[in-house]
Design brief:
This protein is α+β, with helices and mostly antiparallel strands and 318 residues long. It folds into 3 domains: 57 residues, Winged helix-like DNA-binding domain superfamily/Winged helix DNA-binding domain (Arc Repressor Mutant, subunit A, Orthogonal Bundle); 203 residues, BirA Bifunctional Protein, domain 2, CATH 3.30.930; 43 residues, Roll (SH3 type barrels), CATH 2.30.30.100. Helix content is 32%, strand content 27%. The site of biotin has 21 residues, from helix 5, strand 5, strand 8 and strand 9.
Length: 318
């Protein structure tokens, strides 16, 4: 009901009487009053003037589930949202929920994380109300060894969402870093629960720096605010990101990995570069020539031999 009240208030740049709103939404005046109080408690500035009615003055910058789902128009992504002011990590809860059988498309969202984690045991700095920190449960019918393609699919979705909403151009550093002007703006962590030949579920974790101030970011990182010079609506970006994730995931299910790989190539910062990939205790050096159908990076070593790497940390040499 809250989203309906907000939708109706949003339509008018003027006062709407309590009577008008209650009649339009088919609720009692008392019910309306209760919802308005709850919205105010959540940070919505709603002015009430006797004989005139209610007027929506401003909305808080929060990722409330009813805001996320408002006009989202996805089939399954975000149909169920677990939302928290803070969590240790959205990944932990999403993995637990996955084990409890939560459906594909279920989203865990937090306004901040106390132990946000990145790849290779790194931390993900997750200050309150500044970024988007989400974990999405998916149940793909793929073999475990093919799962890296989901990371690539997510990276493509982030780039497309930023292009569609803000017109911003981003690039992907294999496998999972989204960069703007060579600085990291988003990261993806994919975790999986699987058997030898079957994926039970996958959790895609995405961290996106949105309204972080430059002074709190490390030199290699950036935020949408820093790049655009203004505050950005997190809800607007998040909704488009969820739409792109659903569209690209469906594309992957319907057509296989080829169209996703094609899109990934257009955003790639890595291909064509000389790279050093650190995996486990060794490193491989050479030219990044392509991505294979599972999302592995193909490197041409100086000997001419092509070697595939499925995971690792890439350093661009030139
Ligand atoms: C990386 O670049 O190393 C991946 C970063 C992934 C961070 C996100 S934030 C939401 C989700 N919860 C976590 O603890 N990590 C991922």
């Amino acid at each position: 009901m809250k989203e309906k009240i907000l939708d109706y208030l949003n339509k008018k740049d003027d006062y709407l009487s309590g009577d008008q709103i209650s009649k339009h939404l088919g609720i009692s005046r008392q019910g309306l009053w209760k919802h308005i109080q709850e919205l105010k408690d959540s940070g919505y500035e709603i002015v009430a003037v006797p004989h005139l009615g209610y007027r929506l003055q401003s909305c808080p910058d929060r990722l409330f589930p009813f805001e996320v789902t408002r006009n989202l128009n996805t089939k399954f992504t975000g149909k169920k949202i677990h939302y928290f002011d803070y969590l240790a990590s959205t990944m932990d809860l999403a993995m637990q929920l996955g084990m409890q059988g939560e459906p594909a498309g279920t989203l865990v969202l937090a306004e901040s994380q106390t132990k946000g984690r990145g790849r290779l045991g790194r931390n993900w700095f997750s200050p309150k109300y500044k970024g988007i920190y989400l974990s999405l449960i998916l149940r793909p019918k793929i073999l475990p060894q093919v799962s890296p393609i989901l990371t690539l699919m997510s990276a493509v979705s982030i780039c497309e969402a930023l292009k569609n909403t803000l017109g911003m151009e981003t690039q992907i550093k294999w496998p999972n870093d989204v960069l703007m002007h060579n600085k990291k703006i988003a990261g993806i962590l994919t975790e999986m629960n699987s058997e030898v030949d079957k994926v039970n579920f996958v959790v895609i974790g995405i961290g996106l720096n949105v309204n972080n101030d430059k002074k709190y970011l490390i030199a290699q990182a950036t935020s949408l605010k820093e790049q655009s010079g203004q505050r950005v609506s997190r809800i607007f970006i998040l909704q488009e990101l969820l739409r792109r994730l659903e569209a690209n995931y469906s594309l992957l299910e319907d057509k296989g990995s080829a169209p996703i790989i094609d899109k990934w190539r257009t955003f790639s910062l890595t291909l064509g570069k000389r790279v050093k990939v650190y995996c486990q205790d060794k490193h491989i050096e050479g030219s990044a020539v392509d991505i294979d159908k599972d999302g592995g990076l193909l490197i041409r070593k100086d000997s001419g031999l092509i070697q595939k790497v499925s995971s690792g940390d890439v350093m661009h040499c030139r």
